[in-house]
Amino acid sequence: MLFGSVKKVTTTSKLIEQKHYQNWQIYLVEPETGFGTTNPADPDSYVSSGIQYKGQIFWKYATFVDRFPDEYFDLILIDGRARPSCFKHAIPKTKKGGYIVWDNTDRLHYQKTMTIAPVDFKFLDFPGPSPYVSFFTRTSIWHRQT
To answer: Which of 38, 92, 94, 130 is a Cys-bridge partner for 98, taking CB atoms 3.0 to 4.6 Å apart?
Structure first.
């Protein structure tokens, strides 16, 4: 599991310990201060659209998956910062038969990046209601074909 928040790491670590789960690794990869392109739609920008993250770069966060071999993961969930950048790096790390799940793909600045998956990925889309918000959102799934 990859997190960008100390609070989430602490909470998750306690839960894993209480439940006696095995074979878990948690990584905290915090943003860096930096400037570059400020376009959150650009997968090469490594920035978040959240105003509270202005001036922060999520390069180490989005590229953390690169530490693993290509076609390593059965499932990659994208639900954090710099999602277009995370998606770009997740594609080669997904096994044949594996999945990439990207939450909140209804956001307009994600649309262009969603098209960069190679043809061996089948696209599935799930719009609908979401907890904690008063509007519909969308979760998209890419299934890498075998």
So the answer is: 94
Structure tokens, 95: 């096994």
Instruction: Domain 31-144: give its CATH superfamily.
Output: Vaccinia Virus protein VP39 (3.40.50.150)
Alpha helix positions (H), the chain: 6-19, 59-63, 83-90
Structure tokens belonging to residue 57: 């770069």
Residues of the chain with pLDDT under 50: none
29: which 2 tokens? 């990869």
CB under 8 Å to 94, separation ≥6 — which residues? 71, 73, 76, 100, 121, 142, 144
Give the tens place of pLDDT for each residue, 58-88: 999 999 999 999 999 999 999 999 999 999 9
Query: Which residue is listed with tokens 């997740």?
Result: 90
- Judge whether 142 and 99 are in contact, CB under 8 Å: yes
HSE, side-chain direction, 13 A CA sphere, residue 138: 14
pTM: 0.89
What do you get for the CA distance between the two ends of the chain, in Å? 25
